[in-house]
Every structure is written in C-alpha cells, then in structure tokens.
Design goal:
The structure holds 3 protein chains of 3 kinds.
Chain A lengths: L2 H17 L3 E6 L2 H4 L3 H14 L6 E6 L11 E3 L4 E3 L7 H6 L16 H4 L17 H6 L4 H9 L2 H11 L11 H10 L7 E6 L8 H8 L1 H15 L3 E6 L4 H17 L14 E6 L9 H8 L23 E5 H5 L1 H7 L1 H5 L9 E8 L5 E6 L4 H8 L9 E6 L5 E4 L9 H6 L8 E6 L4 H15 L5 H18 L5 H17 L3 H5 L2 H9 L1 H6 L9 H4 L3
Parallel strand pairs in A: 1-2, 5-6, 5-8, 6-7, 9-13
Antiparallel strand pairs in A: 1-3, 3-4, 9-10, 11-12, 11-13
Helix pairs in contact in A: 7-11, 7-15, 8-9, 8-11, 10-11, 10-12, 19-20, 20-21
Chain B lengths: L2 E6 L2 E6 L4 H7 L23 E4 L6 E2 L10 E3 L3 H17 L14 H8 L16 E2 L5 E4 L8 H10 L4 E4 L6 E4 L16 H5 L5 E3 L13 H12 L1
Parallel strand pairs in B: 1-5
Antiparallel strand pairs in B: 1-2, 3-4, 3-5, 6-7, 7-10, 8-9
Chain C lengths: L1 H5 L10 H11 L7 H12 L4 H11 L3 H10 L11 E6 L2 H5 L2 H12 L12 E6 L11 E3 L2 E3 L4 H16 L1
Parallel strand pairs in C: 1-2
Antiparallel strand pairs in C: 1-3, 3-4
Helix pairs in contact in C: 2-3, 3-4, 4-5
The chains are: A alpha/beta, B alpha+beta, C alpha+beta.
C-alpha cells in the first residue's frame, strides 16, 4: 500500500469511527486554557458523559486553541456550534445533560460576533478542531496530503515556484519573500548536507502565535518543514523552540514520533529516495536567538551571539552548510499553499502582502486572544470590531506591534491597512504578530522605557553601540520617568537612537530605538512633560530634530 | 582568484576578491579605524568603529569583514561616520572606568589613540562608573576589568593561536565580562599557559604585566603575524 | 575518537542523577554542539548548574571550561545558584506590564524582602521575572510553584504564595 493510500485509509477509518458519535464536545487544552484547569474540565466532562451512559454517542476531545483565550476554559459543541466560556467543574453535568436540549445559556458566548466572523483561518484552520496529540486526527483533516502530493507529483523546482507564486513572505517579522529564500538555498552549492530550521524562539513579549500553533497543530509545522526539505534538498530539520514552552515541546516531540512511525518523516518517505528527519533544539531564554545567525550559534551549542551577514545562512548556515530558516507561522502556510496552489494564496491579502496573519491580541482590549485575519484589514477593525474596543470606558491611545523592535501606532493611523509596508511607513513593523493595545492610562515614556529595559538586558553584548547604547538610553529614559531629565538629555537620547540604529551589528540593536522613535514622533509632548521645567525652548532639541 | 576594482573615498583601487575592504583600503594608504580587529585574528565586526558607507546600500557595513566587490563605491570617512565613531568612542569611555592619567597603558593605548585621532575632547554621555574588580592573582599579569572594552582579542588569540581557550566572555549585554576558565581567579586557571599573548594583543590597559607603572605598558604584537606565517609555512 | 573517550572524566559522585546527565551526552554522541541540551538536563536533574557539573560536562564534551561557563551564563534560563524551595515567576511581558505586572513584582519583593532574580535569605522563596509566558490572555500572570495563575492583583498574588507555603507545611 502506498503512503497516499495509507493516509486515505486512515481518513476513512477515522470518519467511520467518528460517524458513530452523535455529539462531539471539544475542549481547549492549549496552554492558555490549561492554566485555568481545562484538563480537569475535560476529565469531568468525560465522567459526566460516562455517567449519563452517553459514551457510545458522545466524544469528548481535547483540541487546540480556539482563539478567545481570555474566556478560558473554552468548550465547543461541534454539531451545534455552541461555544461555552469560563466553564467550571460544576457546569459540566449541566453541559452534558443539555446536549439534546437547549444550551446552557449563562455560559454561551455568541459566535455571531466580529471576533469570529472577521477571521479567515489558514494557519489556524485545524486549531480548535483536531486533537493536537493525534496524527490520525491531522490526517483525517487532510494532513500530510500536501507532502505526498509534492513528493509524487512535483519536482523540487516546482515546489519552490509554487511558493514563489503564492507571494508568501516571512512571518517572523522582516517579511522577506519566502520563495526567494527557498530558491537561494535550493541553488546553493553544497558538497555535503543542507538544513532546514524552524525558528520557534518566539521571544517578543506579548506574542504567543507560534506557541499556539505548536500546541494546537504541531504536524502542520512538520509537514511544512518536510516540504521545504524536499524543495531545497535538505535531509535534516531542527525546530529551535523556547524552553519556556514545555507543552509545545511535549506535543512537538509526540508529533515527531508519530510522524516517524507513520512514515511521513524518516528515510525514503513515500517510497521515494527523499529522507527527512527532524530534531528539537531547546532555547534557553535569550531573545537575541530569534536573530537567525544567533539562533544558528545557539543550535551549535554556543553563546547566542549574531555574526555579520553576509554570508547569509542560505549560503553559509548551520555548520557552514546552506540552511533555510523560516518561522513557525511561515511553515504553517506551506501545506495549504501546496494543496490549493500558489494562486489561491495570492488571491488573499493585499498587493504586496499576501495571505493572512496571525496576531496575538492583548492588553487593554475587550477580547484578548489569538486571531487570524487577511492582510490589509485595518487596525480599527482589529482593535474595535474583532477586539471589541477598549474596556472600562477608557479611550484608545496606541497599539504596539512588533514587540521591542516595533513601534506604537496612535489613533490617527487606525485606518491603516495592516501589511508589511504600511506598518513600516508609520514607524513600526509587522513583527511576529504581537499586538498590544494601550489605553489613555499608559504613559508612553514609560512604555519606551519598558522596551528599552528589555533590549538592554537582552543585548548579547558583542557590539558596542547596542551593548552600551541601550544601557545609556535606558538610563536617560529612567531619568525622564523620574522627572529628573533636562532638555540636553532629550537631545542626547535622540542622538543615541540614531547611532545605535545605524551602527549596531544585528537586528536587535538596529531596531532597539524604534519604540523610542515612534513614541517621540507621536507622543513628543509626553517627553517634554518628563523634562524638569517643562517644554524646552533652547536650541538643544531643535539641533537634532 | 580574480582581481576586482572599486572606488574607496574617490580613489580607484583594486584587490583580490577574497580581500576585505579594510585590507584593500590600507594597501592604498586609507586607514579605517578599528578596535576589535587585529591582523592575524578572525575578524568579528563587533566594535563598529570600522563601519563604512557603500553606495546603493542603506546599511552601514563593517569594513573588517566586508569582501570587496566589483564596482563598489565606498566612503570611509564621511561627516556622518566621523560623528558615529566619536559617539561609539564616547560610549566606550562611559562604559567602564577609563582614567588615562593613572593607566599603565597611557600613551600606548588603542582606545586613547583613536579618541585623540577623532577629536574626542570630552564625553557627553554620562559615565556609568560600574564597580569592577581587578584580578592580580596571576604570578605575572594583571586583569583590570575597569579598562576592558570587550573587544575579545584576548579570547581569540588564546583560542586561535595559543590553543588554550582560557578566556571567554560571561553574561551578556552591559553585564558581560571576560573570564578565565570557570569564572575563577586567573592565578588558579588550569588551562592558562602564561604565554602572555593576551596581554600583548589587548588594546588597552585591561591586561598588563605586573610591575609596570603608569604609561610603562607598551604592547608588542609582532609575534602574531610572525606566528601565523610560520604555522602556515609548516603545513 | 576512542582515545579521547577513554579520558572521559568519571562521574563526579555516586549520585544517580549523573547517570541521567551522562545518558543525554551519550545520546548526542558526546558532540560539543550538544552543550546546551546537556546543560538543560543538568539543570532539570539538579535544579541549577554548579562548578562540579560544569567541569564534568566540559571534560566529557571536550569543551574548554571558560566556554561552558560563557554559555551557561549567557542564557537566562540557566541558573548558577541553587533555587529557593519555592518559586514565584512573574511575567513581565508587554501585556502583563500594561496590566500592572510591575506592581505585583514590587509587592512580592517588598513582602518577602527579596530582590527580583534572587532568593530569600532563608532559601525559602525565589522571585524570578520572565520575559513572557505567552499567556497574554490571562495578563497579568505569574507561575507560582509551577502553577500558572492569571488575572492577578496584589492581594491574590500574596494569598497564592501564602497558600503554597501552607500546603507545603501540611
């Protein structure tokens, strides 16, 4: 039996098994809901089902993230589409008893809201539907078909062309065209091996997209990596994942083992001579390791210090071999692109930013959680429609995107379409997808100081401008938040921003001034208020503006 | 190997394609300042003093690791670069406690020399005055963290030339320090061969010989290109 | 290769945990690039990385001691001092910060007279800050003795720590 037939067989079996169940109760077991004891809820629901003698007709299943994380634990009834939030142990009996009748009204969260309606799910299509610890669930949902299709029907060059056609750009932050990167690695001359690396060192404070994908649908990432391995002729892949994500690591380990047993990873996949193995490498708490050369240094067991590029990892990467590095979400887009074609993907989004983007919406907003929207929706739609606006009757002040490398976007730019270029134009970046909403209680000098402290402590210390410059800028911002600063300090801060931005070795240093620069641009008066004696009139500030 | 032609500071120059901008510039009498770079050690592009402008590129590039390319137009000394270099030097002076008048390397120091060349007459960023220890446990040498600029020349010469890898860097960011072995006193290091290479490649007074007084610690670096050459010939 | 393996250092003591460390190294073929993986195992087994462990790992993987120390001290996840009997990790990610994590941290620090990143003098409680748990929907969040607690205020936070101590005593 070929692998494809095997997958088909598994799917049919699963469907048949599933058709016996009249009800499916799905409960989120990703980290957000688990921290409000969704595992206990799951067990209680199963006990109740057994107690009511429904075990034959009702299946209780742990699934990945459904999105509304602040409503955890979240339970969904697959058949009726009813969604319950804040479910407690004592609610479980009622939920099971009401399966045939009316839903438990006080727990119901309407899904007829912009939070659910405005989303378009590609990367997250399986999240909240399949059991992340079951490969058969993934296969039954169409999983690994893209890999078998690519291996059986496409040449590596055609795979690269398809990714190019899709217009997919790197979801880790910078937005480099994925197809171009793939073709560089594919063409790179190498006498020995090539490598594929998945960057799951999600370090931006306030970002949890990659974690949710790994916890909710790990096979999707493995499938994307294997397809990449085929396209660039690599036989080995590494997932570099934060040690702070134990659940993601556990599920990834399970997924790798299952995929090897199923024969979709390993030697001679699908009866071809293509072999691909995946190993996990743990990060150890260093934000700078999200930078690709630092990440490679870390996989090689060294201090995570970046090195100057060129040479780029695509030419000289892991152990000096050509290495393809993409992040979790980028790999998550690959299987659907191969399945549905590059043109399909290119039909979603804007002219230069194709497809969807996953955001972790958090901060001072009604609905916090994980969302996936087409590129080009406006910030206003995200914050006010999907996010439900600002709570406690406060008013919107800014949204922070791109983490410590990004900026704060004020109300005047709320109608900006979210894509790589637009965000860059207003002084922020797309980043990996953290989106923190701030209300009028946030002081922007304080926010700038928060990010500068982050950059200072995460600076690897290798290059002078980043090592000393971030510390100096942090000291200046501290002086400002303590109202001890002088006009001269503001001028110095701006000068240091320029030098650190232009002379630092890697992206961390080059973008470290961004939170300061963007708040200086849109909230300059708050800096003036932070200066002793009020608004400066002297030439010190004008000289650098 | 092929010859490439390029323009550096308006001057037409040429070099082999495996040469860096810094090397070709120097062959043509153009001095690009550097602190972490030292001939004979692997360049790391860390001090950022050697950053240059390349026409058509937004980003500044470190000359010590940037290979020459055909048709490149390089500017090594624009007003902007001079300003950046002054700030980088000021940042270095502010980072630890560099007091030239009482330093063993006064008059023989790369940092001091560059500051003089770049007209750094005063430091406009606040001094940080960290409290840094001095390690005088080695029988012949002294390590003074107050003067260290973390260029990692000692780390590299010990690893690449002596082969002992006694030195490394601990911690990160502004807290980073050079260490010997398991962050122990230098005098107790089991791997140190007391060869003194680190002392002589050190650009400042951070590493010095015992018994030297103010301004007496002149460094001798002729050994480095000599050793490199001898070892290559041996192969 | 085999000659080098013969000079591999002996296990530092009869403590069974060294066998776990050795197993990890063996699984990686004693390759030097497995250093970070091995340090993770040491920390999991012993709770922290001490000089004995670093010397043993350096000798077994044939890595200079200074490099082992350099790596161990570079990554925030590794701790070179024994942790307290109980831990409180406060998330300082952006979402938590915006929702008042700094106040939580200050309150615990004051109540237990301990600085962030350090352990109380009696070795009872370690107060740690984290970059981001990725539990931003639960901001502000903390992990107290391994359990995630979300949407905290100062009173909740101190109560939870106290509860943990009482459970421990019971």
């Amino acid at each position: 039996m070929t692998l494809l037939e095997d997958l088909q067989h598994i799917t049919e079996e699963e469907e048949e098994k599933d058709s016996k169940f009249k009800y499916h109760i799905n409960i989120c077991v990703a980290a957000g809901c688990l921290s409000s004891q969704s595992d206990v809820i799951k067990k209680t629901l199963q006990d109740e089902v057994n107690k009511c003698g429904l075990a034959e007709v009702c299946k209780v299943k742990g699934v990945g993230c459904m999105g509304p994380c602040s409503g955890g634990p979240v339970v969904a009834l697959a058949e009726s589409g009813v969604l319950y939030e804040h479910v407690k142990v004592e609610d479980c009996a009622e939920i099971v008893k009401s399966l045939e009748g009316k839903p438990v009204e006080r727990l119901v969260q309407s899904t007829d809201t912009p939070f659910f309606k405005r989303q378009v799910k590609i990367v997250l299509e399986n999240c909240g539907k399949i059991d992340p610890e079951s490969i058969t669930d993934y296969i039954a949902a169409g999983g690994y078909r893209a890999l078998t299709h690519a291996l059986a029907e496409m040449t590596p060059v055609e795979v690269v062309e398809e990714v190019k056609k899709s217009g997919l750009r790197g979801r880790g932050g910078a937005g480099y065209p994925t197809g171009l990167k793939w073709s560089t690695v594919a063409k790179a001359q190498s006498s020995g091996r090539k490598f594929v690396v998945c960057n799951a060192d999600e370090g931006d404070p306030g970002a949890f997209m990659d974690r949710s994908v790994l916890e909710s649908d790990p096979h999707r990432v493995l499938e994307g990596m294997a397809i990449a391995g085929y396209a660039v002729a690599a036989d080995m892949g590494y997932v570099y994942v934060r040690a702070e994500y134990p659940l993601a690591i556990k599920r990834l380990k399970t997924a790798i083992k299952q995929a090897e047993q199923q024969g979709v990873l390993g030697n001679d996949i699908c009866g071809t001579n293509f072999s691909f193995h995946v190993e996990i490498r743990l990060g150890a708490g260093a934000f700078v390791c999200g930078e690709e050369t630092a990440l490679l240094a870390s996989i090689e067991g060294n201090r995570g210090q970046p090195r100057p590029r060129p040479p780029f990892p695509a030419i000289k990467g892991l152990w000096d071999r050509p290495t393809l590095i993409n992040n979790v979400e980028t790999f998550g887009n690959i299987a659907p692109i191969i399945r549905n074609g590059g043109e399909w993907f290119a039909g979603i989004g804007t002219e230069k930013s194709k497809g969807t983007k996953v955001f972790a919406l958090a901060g001072k907003v009604q609905n916090t959680g994980l969302i996936e929207v087409p590129m080009g929706v406006t910030l206003r739609e995200i914050v006010f429609d999907i996010g439900g606006g600002i709570p406690d009757g406060r008013s919107y002040k800014a949204v922070q995107t791109g983490g410590p490398s990004g900026g704060c976007i004020p109300a005047e730019h709320l109608d900006l379409p979210v894509d790589y270029e637009s965000l860059a134009r207003v002084g922020s970046i797309m980043g990996s997808g953290g989106m923190i909403v701030m209300d009028d209680t946030s002081n922007m000098v304080d926010v700038a100081k928060f990010f500068m402290e982050f950059c200072m402590t995460e600076s690897c210390g290798k290059c002078v401008p980043c090592r000393v410059g971030t510390a100096q800028m942090y000291d200046l911002l501290t002086k400002m938040t303590e109202k001890r600063a002088t006009p001269r300090d503001l001028a110095l801060l701006e000068e240091l921003c320029e030098v650190v931005k232009n002379t630092s070795l890697c992206g961390l240093g080059q973008t470290a001034p961004n939170p300061v620069l963007s708040t200086l641009e849109y909230f300059r008066h708050e800096y003036y208020e932070a200066i002793t004696g009020g608004i400066p009139a002297g030439p010190a500030v004008e000289a650098v503006s | 190997m092929s010859v490439k032609t390029l323009v550096i500071d308006g001057k037409d120059v040429s070099g082999n394609d495996n040469q860096t901008v810094m090397e070709v510039a120097r062959e043509n009498g153009i001095r690009i300042p550097a602190l972490c770079h030292l001939d004979g050690l692997t360049p790391v592009g860390a001090c950022r003093m050697c950053v240059i402008e390349v026409k058509g590129l937004n980003k500044l590039l470190p000359a010590c690791v940037t290979r020459i390319e055909e048709g490149m137009e390089v500017s090594t000394n624009s007003d902007r670069l001079q300003r950046y270099r002054r700030t980088i030097l000021e940042l270095l002076f502010s980072e630890r406690n560099h007091i030239c008048s009482v330093c063993v390397s006064n008059g023989h120091c790369d940092l001091q020399g560059l500051a003089a060349r770049h007209g750094v007459t005063h430091v406009s960023v606040p001094y940080r005055y960290p409290s840094c220890p001095v390690d005088a446990t080695h029988s012949r040498f002294i390590l003074d963290h107050n003067r260290c600029i973390l260029c990692t020349r000692c780390v590299r010469v010990c690893d690449e030339v002596e082969g002992a890898h006694t030195w490394d860097v601990m911690g990160r960011g502004i807290e980073a320090r050079v260490i010997t072995d398991l962050n122990q006193q230098w005098g107790t290091s089991g791997s140190c061969t007391s060869c003194s290479k680190c002392v002589h490649v050190c650009p400042t007074g951070a590493l010095s010989e015992k018994g030297k007084s103010v301004a007496e610690m002149a460094k001798h670096r002729e050994f480095l290109p000599y050793l490199k050459q001898m070892r290559e010939d041996h192969r | 290769m085999s000659a080098n393996l013969k000079t591999k250092p002996a296990l530092p003591s009869a403590d069974k945990r060294w066998k776990i460390v050795d197993a990890t190294m063996r699984r990686h073929g004693y390759r030097s690039d497995s250093l970070i993986e091995v340090l993770h195992t040491v920390q999991e087994a012993f709770g922290y990385l001490d000089e004995v462990a670093m010397k043993f790992v350096a000798g077994s993987l044939r890595i200079p001691p200074s490099k082992v120390y350099g790596v161990a001290s570079f990554y925030q996840f590794f701790t070179l001092r024994p942790p307290g009997r109980r831990t409180c990790v406060v998330c300082m990610g952006t979402a938590c910060y915006i929702k008042g994590a700094a106040n939580l941290l200050a309150a615990v620090a004051e109540h237990y007279n301990v600085k962030p990143g350090e352990t109380t003098a009696d070795g009872e409680l370690s107060l740690i800050t984290a970059r981001c748990f990725g539990s931003c929907g639960l901001a502000p969040a903390a992990v107290i003795d391994g359990n995630v607690a979300g949407k905290l205020n100062v009173a909740d936070m101190l109560e939870r720590i106290k509860e943990g101590a009482q459970n421990d005593a019971a």
